[in-house]
Amino acid sequence: MMFTKSIMPVAAFCALLPLAGAGEARAQDATSPAVLPASPPATPVVPRQPGSVTDAELEKYVKAALAVQDIEQDSATPDGDKQARMAAAVQAAGLTPETFNRIGMASQSDALLQQRIQLIAVKIQAGSAPR
Fold first, then answer.
1. Measured between alpha carbons, how far is 5 from 43 in angstroms, rounded to an integer?
2. Range in 4-13, 17-26, 71-80 with the lowest mean pLDDT
3. Residue 27: is its pLDDT beyond 80?
4. Please, which contacts does 38-42 make with residues 24 or more away whose CB atoms are closer than 8 Å?
5. Burial of 14 (C-beta count, 10 Å sphere; 0-12/13-18/19+)
6. Rounded to an integer, what distance in angstroms lies between the CA atom of residue 44 and that of residue 10?
7. Which string of b and e fits 52-63 if b means at least 16 CB within 10 Å?
8. 3-state SS track over 66-97
9. Is the dihedral of CA 39, 41, 45, 48 positive or negative?
10. pLDDT by residue (tens digit) across 51-99?
11. How far apart are alpha carbons 34 and 80 in whole angstroms?
12. What is the DSSP letter of 39?
């Protein structure tokens, strides 16, 4: 997959990904980023400390967010199939839907995390550009 899109929409998508509670789904429209369904955790989830998201996790997050964005915008995929494909894309990137949503939620209130996401998105896109 080639990531040749402008970084600004992707960075905004990654940094401002709105989320719903675990296991909830909401209606999608052209301006709403995906919310991945999350299975209920076996044990209570303890939020991680701010800044505890590793660069490796953020790289997986950005790759997953790019894939999710592509699926959302794919008019050939029936809407009923998109949630499952998005969850599969997140898992293929190496994250659970819960981790993907946790990072997205944290990025909404953490400017430093937003900046780290944007920097990683630039790095990924620069490395994927055709030569």
1. 39
2. 17-26
3. no
4. 38/96, 38/97, 38/98, 38/101, 39/97, 39/98, 41/98
5. buried
6. 31
7. ebeeebbbbbbb
8. HHHHHHHHCCCCCHHHHHHHHHHHHHHCCCCH
9. negative
10. 589 999 999 999 999 999 999 999 999 999 999 999 999 999 999 999 9
11. 13
12. P
- Per cent of the chain over pLDDT 70 is 59
Type of residue found at 59: E
Q: What token pair was written down for 92?
A: 């293929």
Give the integer Cα–Cα distance in Å for 101 and 24.
Answer: 12
With a pLDDT cut of 90, the percent of the chain lying above it is 54
Amino acid in position 6: S
For the chain, how long is the longest CA-to-CA vector? Answer: 47
pLDDT at residue 34 in the model: 56
Which residue do the tokens 């970084």 mark?
Answer: 7
CA distance 40 to 127: 36
What pLDDT, on the 0 to 100 scale, is given for residue 44? Answer: 45
